[in-house]
Amino acid sequence: MGSGWRGILGFDYGIVQAPLGPDISGPELAAAVANAGAIGIIRLPDFPAPDYVRELIRKTRSLTSRPFGAAIVLPFPYEENLRVVLEEKLAVLQVYWGEFPREWVQEAHRAGVKVLHQVGSLEEATKAKEAGVDGIIVQGREAGGHVIGQEGLIPLLPRVVDLVSNSGIPVIAAGGIVDGRGYVAALALGAQGVCLGTRFLATEESYAHPIYKEKVIEMSRTDYTNVFGRARWSYAPQRVLETPFYSGCKNLPDQETEENQPIIGHSIIHGVHKDIHRFAGIAPNPTATGDIDSMVMYAGQSVGLITEIIPAGEVVRRLVAEAKDVIRERLSDFQ
């Protein structure tokens, strides 16, 4: 098994770095992942900012000569930002939380951009297949951040694999995967790659606040909730760390939103100054000030397996090496 082991979509490895919001997967992280031969993805703003998006792309290109991608969240205005992605001819466009019509997929293909659609159900996967996407990321309920589906990865993943088995569309597993064991488990279920969010959050290059990174290393419990960001995105439940702050307010009444809560800090998100209200869905980046411990901290269920902050390239290298070891040392007797 050489450097091309389990590569997908023209990349060396079948490893995708999930887009971490709101701007935690910036140029430094995406470039580091790309330089290691995996698929690095910058998270684009949830508001129209074409000039800023072009700057993000060009800054990433200054840090890597390898291909990389960008991600948009479909419920928010995205057409202006998407146009820049196509004009800049990025390798990959990742879309999430909604339908991405065949017309847009075809336009991306005309620009030479491959489309990855992240889904949380068989129904969504069916629509993505019909739209002609180049890859489908199957997100299980174990995943951190905003989680669209209700099914666990193990029951959902093979169903999607079977659905697209005659199409040649690679399926990528997401949710609770942080090491080579999870990589091999996903391959056994029929996936051709894996997508990791929380593991890449806890890297040197991620744009997460140092306190946020420390919590990911220290803590092992998460919860699935709708406490954060209700006013801005009311139908988007999320998986978060069970921090002391969250544990004390997880039963927040449904009528309460961040809009009627006090400001607990400030941050600069994609170049825009933001007031952070209590229960806002804004995870802290290094510009965040104020009560960091009371801000939302997204993380997946396997957070307890992450024990150190390492370079993103090392994450890629370890995943491949560990997966090879699992296959060679633990599964060879089954051959």
Automatic annotation (TrEMBL):
Q: Which InterPro entries match?
A: Aldolase_TIM (IPR013785), NMO (IPR004136)
- List the GO molecular function terms: nitronate monooxygenase activity
Record bears the keyword Oxidoreductase: yes
UniProt keywords (A-Z) are: Flavoprotein, FMN, Oxidoreductase
What is the protein name stated in its UniProt record?
Nitronate monooxygenase domain-containing protein
Domain of life from the UniProt record: Eukaryota
Q: Which CDD domains match?
A: NPD_like
The cross-references to Pfam families, in alphabetical order and at most eight, read: NMO (PF03060)
PANTHER family for the chain: 2-NITROPROPANE DIOXYGENASE, 2-NITROPROPANE DIOXYGENASE-LIKE PROTEIN
